[in-house]
Specification:
Elements (H helix, E strand, L loop, with lengths): L1 E3 L5 E3 L2 E5 L5 E2 L2 E2 L3 H8 L4 E6 L6 H4 L6 E4 L9 H8 L4 E5 L5 H6 L2 E5 L7 H5 L3 E3 L2 H9 L2 H7 L2
Parallel strand pairs: 3-6, 3-8, 6-7, 8-9, 9-10
Antiparallel strand pairs: 1-2, 4-5
Helix pairs in contact: 1-6
């Protein structure tokens, strides 16, 4: 997905990294409509979910959903979300999160989106983001209608 932002750099987004709880899930359960959106958009972009899996449900909840799930509590290769971001290449990643442990991920990604949903958002994470959204569905809308990103980020 290539997006030319007037007055700014062109974004070449190949990957979207989601936090799990507070971002695409609430209380350990995937938010209604998320799996369907990932399925519908997976031919355009690669989806990744990075989680410490507080509720122990991420892998089961995302079974059959076309995304890579990285469970940091089980991973030997990746210890932090930014380790995985570096592996993918931060210059090609849009990242989405809400918690304190998402702060560096959003700051280092080519585009970081903070979400204010039912769990709220850590203030430091909010200040480390490029965009703030009120719903995960808003993030999917950016993929479906990239001109919304242009309107938000243009100089």
């Amino acid at each position: 997905m290539i997006i030319e932002i007037p007055g700014r750099n062109t974004l070449e987004i190949q990957h979207i990294i989601f936090d799990y709880n507070g971002t695409i899930a609430l209380d350990g359960k995937v938010i209604e409509g998320v799996a369907e959106k990932i399925q519908a958009l997976s031919d355009r972009i690669d989806f990744h979910v990075i989680t410490a899996d507080t509720y122990g449900t991420a892998e089961k909840e995302l079974e059959g959903v076309p995304c890579q799930v990285i469970n940091l509590s089980k991973s030997n290769e990746f210890k932090t979300k930014t380790d995985y971001l570096a592996f993918l290449g931060k210059e090609h990643c849009l990242s989405v999160g809400n918690g304190f442990n998402d702060k560096a991920l959003l700051k280092q990604s080519i585009l970081g989106i903070a979400l204010i949903q039912d769990e709220g958002v850590c203030t430091e994470t909010l200040m480390s983001s490029d965009i703030v959204c009120k719903s995960i569905m808003d993030v999917f809308s950016f993929i479906e209608k990239p001109n919304r990103l242009k309107a938000t980020l243009r100089v």
